[in-house]
Amino acid sequence: LSGGPLQGVHAVVTAGPTHEAVDPVRVLTNRSSGKMGFAVAEALARLGAQLSLIAGPVSLSTPPGVKRIDVQSADDMLQASLAAAAQAQIFVGTAAVADYRPAQTAPGKIKKSSDTLSLALSRTADILSTVRDRHPALFMVGFAAETESLVDYARDKLRRKQLQMVAANEVGGGRAFDVDDNHLIVVEAQQETDLGHAPKTELARALAELIAARYLALNPS
Ligand code: PMT
Q1: Does 182 participate in catalysis according to the annotation?
Q2: Which ranges constitute the DSSP H helices of the chain?
């Protein structure tokens, strides 16, 4: 939309899970519907930002005014993120990226033969850290999904991944994943802002406004 405070700013949002192929019919994945990320992309676009939304496999429609790039695996998401980040000023990682993928993808369907089956897994690259290394000037926001010590882990991610902000949400017990509401606490170097428990669309608007305020304070036009 024209005329918003983020007009002329390009933002990238990653959303949803990734699928890591075990064989042609099976995948390893994380819980994530993409709702939080799609809402953040829509809210930033409403503030005038030009949006690239990098979406894992989800069944959601594309928010208005947003350029959507569909990906499957963590590696696809990394490549799409690096390409989009080259033109961007703001990067928000809401995706629930698989931390491990099968070390090898079987070319044919794995047959049921023994009672147990072991899969060797290898680590995927960390998208936020890789994008940060290549693009040190980006304003970067990560998410933290934790079952305990939420703010402490979020603060640790903020420092380790050199982010400007981490939006922390508690998961487990039916919270955050898949549902329409969430509770977000935004952790920054000097402060914490509790955005409360609300529909994801509302939290996304509040988060987008905070991102815009901080970005514009650092980059006055
Ligand atoms: O999609 P919904 O159903 O609406 O649910 C929303 C959500 C709970 C998935 C979302 O709000 C959320 O918390 N997303 C991050 C989930 C996650 O995987 O968190 P993490 O603590 O494992 O990862 C921390 C950060 O590093 C995240 O910004 C993640 O995108 C990023 N990451 C993680 C792994 C990896 N290989 N590369 C990354 O960039």
Answers
A1: no
A2: 35-46, 74-85, 127-134, 150-160, 200-218
Residue type, 47: L
Q: Which two tokens stand for residue 1?
A: 């939309």
User: How far is the centre of ligand 1, averaged over its atoms, from the C-alpha of 108 (Å)?
Assistant: 31
- Tell me if 180 CB under 6 Å of ligand 1: no
* 157 labelled binding-site residue: yes
177 lines ligand 1 (CB under 6 A): yes
Q: Is the ipTM of this complex over 0.95?
A: yes
Strands (E), the chain: 10-15, 20-23, 26-28, 50-55, 66-70, 90-93, 100-102, 121-123, 139-146, 165-170, 181-187, 192-199
CATH superfamily name and code, 10-98+121-218? CoaB-like (3.40.50.10300)
State how far the Cα of 81 lies from the Cα of 11, in Å rounded to an integer. Answer: 11
Tens of pLDDT, residue by residue over 124-182, are: 999 999 999 999 999 999 999 999 999 999 999 999 999 999 999 998 888 989 899 99
Q: How far is the CA of 198 from the centre of ligand 1 (A)?
A: 19
Rounded to whole angstroms, the Cα distance separating 142 from 95 reads: 9
161 is in an annotated binding site: yes
